[in-house]
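Reviewers of the previous submission asked for a worked example of the structure-prediction workflow described in the proposal, so we include one complete record here. The input consisted solely of the amino acid sequence. No template or homolog information was supplied to the procedure at any stage.
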Amino acid sequence: MTNLERAALLHIVAGTPARLKAALKGVPKKLLLWTPGPGKWSILEIVAHMRDMERDAYLDRYRRILAEDNPTLPDLDGDVIAIRDDYRSLKLSELMRDWLKLRKECLKLLKSVKGQRWERTGTHETAGPLSMDALLRRHAMGNDEAHLGQIEGIKKRAAALEAIEAGPGRVAQLTKKLDGGVLRLKPAPDRWSALEVVCHLRDVEKLWVDRIVKVAFSDRPAFYTLDFEALVSKQSYNTQDLTAALKELARLRADTVCLLRALPASQWKRTGMHPKRGEISIERIVEIMIGHDRGHLDQIAKAVAAS
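From that input alone, the workflow returned the following structure tokens.
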């Protein structure tokens, strides 16, 4: 490793305390404990893991490599430790206090390492020979950058799921007090009524979940499209029952949220091929869903106002 590369990694390690504090600022307790999917860690658990790895995977290993000739470095199973030490019961303030102290000790030690001492090695139980330089790279990239990205990903994913989960409730709130006349009134001959919008939202939900399933479990599948304008008249949207449509929309959306929560973050990056939009990821589908909900909520509000 060149001195320039090492300096860049040390810069990352030194800058992580400020970045972590910024990432955690203003995060409510509910979000600290929110998990992006079954078996996944919350933000609180990630910070607890970072605290323990700072002590046992980095500071202890740095010290041993520098003090001993080729020490054996035990493997650490973070999932086992998280369960054993009940990470979800810990306090963020105490975790941060301990982690910051440990990071300060790590930085002091790393700044003292000169010349060929960076080439000293230990032998990891599963990863094999591990030099000070290699351990520093793991510290900066595999630990700091990875976990900061993980935290930001959880915040983004939580906001997205919260937004789509709330959609059916917002639709119900806008339409629940409308009488039949207002509900079925078209603002213009070529515009949908509030009821038609609700029925459209119900039926397009089936398209969203079909695409998500295909992308999650197939390699770049081709998407089909539907003529939703034709469905309005074909299925007589304006004669349907609002209560039934809202109930079905809520059921379908709950299934969509359940599916998305079950998918690992890596699968949100998988893509399918839209005939007009081109390559689209699950992450992008969710963004489109949010915008689609927002647009049709505005449409319902305008249809009501026009009455």
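The chain has a mean pLDDT of 93. We consider this example representative of the routine output the project will generate in years two and three.
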